Input
Amino acid sequence: MSAVQIVATTPFDDQRPGTSGLRKKVQVFQQPHYLENFVQSIFDAVEVDPRRPLVLGGDGRYYNRQAIGVILRIAAANGVKRVLVGRDGLLSTPAASCVIRKHHAFGGIILSASHNPGGPEGDFGIKFNTANGGPAPEAVTEAIYRRSREIDRYRILSEQPSFPLDQIGSHALGEMVVEIIDPVADYAELMESLFDFQALRTLLQGGFRLCFDAMHAVTGPYACEILERRLGAPEGTVINATPLEDFGGGHPDPNLTYAKDLVERLYGPDAPDMGAASDGDGDRNMILGRGFFVSPSDSLAVLTAHHRAAPGYDRPLAGVARSMPTSRAVDRVAQALEIPCYETPTGWKFFGNLLDAGRITLCGEESFGTGSDHVREKDGLWAVLFWLNVLAREQRGVEEIVRAHWRRFGRDYYTRHDYEGIDSKRAHTLMDQLRERLPTLPGSRIGTLTVESADDFRYTDPVDGSVSEHQGIRIHFAEDARAVFRLSGTGTQGATLRVYLERYEPDPARQDRDPQQVLAEVITAARELARIPQLLDRETPDVIT
Ligand code: VG1
Ligand code: CO
Output
């Protein structure tokens, strides 16, 4: 009945994982053997520890359930003895990280394409996390990729799982035990250990109004349980709370463009005191005040400056880290706190070593990602609870707190311009040409700005010494401004060029301007330097955040 089948197969040539796992169109994953090949490659590259469980769950998007069935059968055929699966196949990315750590799993498989749209025409994704709860480091993802290039068979149980995924309980599948667990419980307990839930209850039951937009993605059940049930926020605090396979047709991406329902409320009449949103898999966050947007780079800096408000962080921080394109706002706080500040390549996996070694406590990315040493992923709801804890302690609003922060540390005006769906060859030509000209740039004037230094970011991991090359081109201007160029590693169609722009303003009298205007000269200089209009045939970016 539960025989292991060995199925002959041939490799696909496109299974190189990007910034966070393998992301493709659903139709690509639906090809015969496609998912099976990649999952078998994981089990071939990673040692299965039969004494420890595997964690499995996803963001609930289209194909999540089918993929869980296939992965369970392949896991059982590869010597896994116990799998913890989130009820309904759900686990947010940070909750999966929490469960891996708490239950001493040897790893976890997370099914998500994060903020990319879902549904039969949308995207699907799969990612392997290691025993520390974090995304597999490059050495592991490379081993999985190498294996996927030469795979010629996979092992799969002939038996189909016949039990329902929607009820907590234990079931046998071949020699393996499948435990359906509450996807929220372990995570909620961890949040309770970090934040002052009593103070949050007083705040949320005392007239402070929060609106949390789950964007029909995985954080719905988490936010309802924690914000409404445990903290007593009024019913309706969480909007778009039911996870849908196609996220209601939207982009589950928390930014001013895609979190429309939330933005309308926060910028409309009778706006609540705070707005927040998370993405498809629950690891991103956007924080809004009444008619006020908190840039993710500033959010990291503010939480760092106010870390003592939260009981779980009421101690000196070991250090902080930000991804290279993230603004330098947090660097200024680190300097004041006299703690180290690390600059890492884009992607959460680079924070993992620093977190494991105890070198940093908080970290973040400009792409709406913030997190800490409590798990090994960025964590959307955690950031929202942290902000609430700061507000409860300070008894001030979101905007007031950020403005006070700028007065003290200065404001790092920031924006990101994305050129999406461009021809991949053109994108690489642009980057190559810019890279070639780097040595000639210092000293040259572009408009009103002078290039001070220019390089292609190369990262040496301070813990294990591993080196990552070509992590983005950095141009520093003498006028305390910076432009960064890199190509996205998460898209599924063509290439995306990301241009990150920032400029520092220490003068409190000049901190209330529109970032696009303040950054106009830096934006023009960046376009000229990279010859964007000529090489991409584009006059304006597709998305501005
Ligand atoms: C983007 C972001 C990056 C983030 C990654 C995964 O990558 O820029 O900061 O770590 O998405 O986020 P890229 O390569 O497209 O720029 V998520 O929420 O997918 O896990
Ligand atoms: Co995400």
